[in-house]
Amino acid sequence: MKKIFFCDFCGEKNGKLLFVNFDHLTKKNKFFNLIKCGKCGLVYLSPKPKNIKKYYLDNYEPYNPHSKDLYFSFYQTLVKSFYKKKKTLIDLSKSVFCRIFYPQPTSECGKILDIGCGNGGYLSILKDGGWEVYGLDFSKKAVDFAQNERGLINIKQARTEILDYPNNFFDLITMNHLIEHLPNPKKTLIEAKRVLKTGGIISITTPNFSSLNEKIFKTNWFPLETPRHLFLFEAKVLIKLIGEIDGLRVTKVKHDYSSYCFAKSLGYLLGNRPSLNRFLMTFKIFFLPYTYILSLTNHSDTMTIYAQKQ
């Protein structure tokens, strides 16, 4: 008897099995189906783990500080200069580079909420630039590090379905590689809209299932992140989901040229050996010409969708 898969978003039951995958990170002997809805195009995991926490190990990268590689340090110094109120000539030059390589959702500082903030690396950069920063994550380890090591006092451990903030409180809300982890993305987006000021921006960065690398690497495509990624989106699918929320309007879609996911995928394809992975991540900068071309053609590994509260 053929197994029937029901889409989490539209309820359609004609889902197509794309492939079966396992967890490359924990290497647990359990397999999960990746299904694509034939009606709305959503890609979703089936079955979903009953205890998802066991797949988030202590060494899970977003919970731990970024290594000070060239790419991250370059990003850090550009963003800090971009948000400085009083800029030196060097800061002005860095700001121009920031606008080109790392365009920010807004040029004005205010209150920001980073949902799924991990260890607080991104918020610490924005705080240095003048932002009033808030964040939440469900990992106690990540929150403790953000509070104790980075001094980010407005970071807390919490879930995303109910946000404990007043209405119309934030100027900017970011979800960096979060929405694909959420059991109920629409409910979180509705809450985010509630606590966002009118005219404020929600920035959603997530894997792009229309990526050329997904077609090349298939089960070795790093952004699959089975089973931590419960959903995967093409731009049109996520835009449709946002459009169902009254008062939110998509204003821009940006495709990222980062070579991080390509290097990770190549490591999986070649055996997922720690020494090889470290080598590929060290020299991932040399893959940038290829990933930059992908971004120009909207086939990059990740994308950012900006939505404004009307």
Could you describe the 3D structure shown?
The model has no long low-confidence stretch (mean pLDDT 90). 32% of the residues lie in helices and 21% in strands. Strand 7 (170-176), helix 5 (185-195) and strand 8 (196-207) form a beta-alpha-beta unit. Helix 1 (70-83) crosses helix 2 (89-101) and helix 8 (260-269) runs antiparallel to helix 9. Strands 6-5-4-7-8-11-10 form a 7-stranded mixed sheet, sandwiched between helices. The chain has a 4-stranded antiparallel sheet with strand order 1-2-3-9, with no helix packed on it. The longest helix is centred in the N-terminal third of the chain and has 14 residues, at 70-83. By secondary structure, it is of the alpha/beta class. The chain has a single domain (57-309), classed as Vaccinia Virus protein VP39 (Rossmann fold). The protein has helices at residues 70-83, 89-101, 121-129, 140-148, 185-195, 212-217, 235-243, 260-269, 274-282, 288-296, and strands spanning 16-21, 32-36, 43-46, 111-115, 132-137, 155-157, 170-176, 196-207, 231-232, 248-255, 302-309. 37% of the residues are buried. It contains 10 helices and 11 strands.
